[in-house]
Amino acid sequence: MRKRNVAIICLMLVFLLTSCGEEQSVVTSPVLKRAEFAEDKEDHQITVGFIQTGKESDWRDANTNNFLNTFTEGKGYRMVYVDGNSDPKRQVKAMYDLIAQKVDYIILDPIVEDGWDEALKVAGDQGIPVIISDRNVNADPSLYTCWVGSDFQEEGRKAARILEDFLEKKGREDEPLNIAILEGTEGASAAIGRTAGLNESIAGHKNWNIVARECGNFTQGEGKQSMEKILDGHDDIDVLISENDNMIFGAMDAMDERDIPYGVDDGIITISFDALKEAFQKMIDRKLVASVECNPLLAGTAEAVIKDLENGKKVKKKIYTDEAVFTYENAGTSIVNRAY
């Protein structure tokens, strides 16, 4: 683990976070930048702090396990894992705690985009590179090293194109459509991007109308509750688009309880995001028309960034992961290779 100049003891500003809702002042003193202390090592182990959002979905579990299985002691890493427990304030405090621990790198998967400027600035002042993973931050890009993840807005567009293709195959492209959307956590990059992509694409169809929106916070339980609320107010839904698989699983439970048909052959057309293994089975069973992949296996990309930085190489500011689209037509051949 790398030694830091004694001056960074002044970093104890972390304890200003005893009340996350209060105004915070940050006082720093001159410190060595990472390039200046890179050769001063006690050993070859690299300490990586990983701040996760929580455990809100099966996708998140796969994402967490991918990081824990990548940054292992056997590969020369010491991982400091922090579960954000779906609490943005807890995540910010964790950032300051990791800075105080003098970790070598921080990987941050933010719950929401806002509120990160000061913590990122402090990390930079202490020479700690920050890699943003999956969701993004609404901050000056100069405050972090890079971001790795998905093009969420393009994912929204992909879902709309799937709907277009499905309607054309059914000969229904000219029919008026009432669309309900289950949105993810307010302020989260995935929700912001997917919603923007969907809104943009839906606006291009005069016969498509969004008649209901509910926030399901990316969880199965809230997905069910949100769908129940939608069904209480609307009996004319033609399409349900859910911004992740777990929410649509909950919505399916709500529709099953009311004997409302849905899926490929009859009733409400169902489309979601993530492409979890369970979603593949739903597609095979023709209960789900399609799921737009959002790849949770981001740890390898983050590790590659760290290796490049260790070797003094420049890295790209944005690195998009490869993703596909799966439908009821190709799910049967694809499920056998699904890792999550």
Please characterize this protein's 3D structure.
The two termini are 33 Å apart. This protein is of the alpha/beta class. Helix 3 packs parallel to helix 4 and helix 7 crosses helix 8. The longest helix has 19 residues. The N terminus is likely disordered. A six-stranded parallel sheet has the order 2-1-3-4-5-11, with helices on both faces. The protein has a six-stranded mixed sheet with strand order 7-6-8-9-10-12, sandwiched between helices. The chain has eleven helices and twelve strands.
SSE diagram, text form:
Elements: H1 34-37, E1 46-52, H2 58-70, E2 77-83, H3 88-100, E3 105-108, H4 117-125, E4 130-133, E5 146-149, H5 152-170, E6 177-183, H6 189-202, E7 208-215, H7 220-233, E8 239-242, H8 245-257, E9 269-274, H9 277-284, E10 290-293, H10 299-310, E11 318-320, E12 325-327, H11 331-334
Parallel strand pairs: 1-2, 1-3, 3-4, 4-5, 5-11, 6-7, 6-8, 8-9, 9-10
Antiparallel strand pairs: 10-12
Helix pairs in contact: 3-4, 5-6, 7-8
